[in-house]
Amino acid sequence: MALANHDVQEEICGVEGCNKPAERSFNIKQVSKTSLSLKDPSARQIHLCKEHYKEFKKETKTDRSLDQVY
């Protein structure tokens, strides 16, 4: 049986000035710790494109490694 794609809307990147399709989504608390300027800072989830996801990973590398230890 095939799945129906009713009103499937592709998410776009939540970073100011970027209109690329989103690859991943994160909690606003995680993304607000970075230098990325967001379109909607009151949102609960932020969608990031591939390029901004790479930036996010670079900026949060030490935080993520500390979380893995504890």
Write structural notes for this entry.
It contains three helices and two strands; from the N terminus they run βαβαα. The chain is an alpha+beta fold and 70 residues long. It has a two-stranded antiparallel sheet.
Keyword list:
single chain, 70 residues, 3 helices, 11% strand, alpha+beta, two-stranded antiparallel ribbon, globular
* Percentage of residues in DSSP E strands: 5-15%
- Class by helix and strand content? alpha+beta
Give the helix proportion (percent range): 25-40%
SSE arrangement, N to C: EHEHH
End-to-end C-alpha gap:
45 Å
Largest sheet entry: 2 strands, antiparallel
Radius of gyration: 14 Å
Uncertain ranges: none
Find the count of extended strands (DSSP E, 2+ residues): 2
Mean of all residue-level pLDDT scores: 86
How would you sum up the global shape? globular
Number of helices: 3
Strand order, main sheet: write it out.
1-2
Give a short overview.
The chain is 33% helix and 11% strand.
Q: How would you summarize the topology of this molecule?
A:
Blueprint: E1 24-27, H1 28-31, E2 45-48, H2 50-59, H3 61-69
Antiparallel strand pairs: 1-2
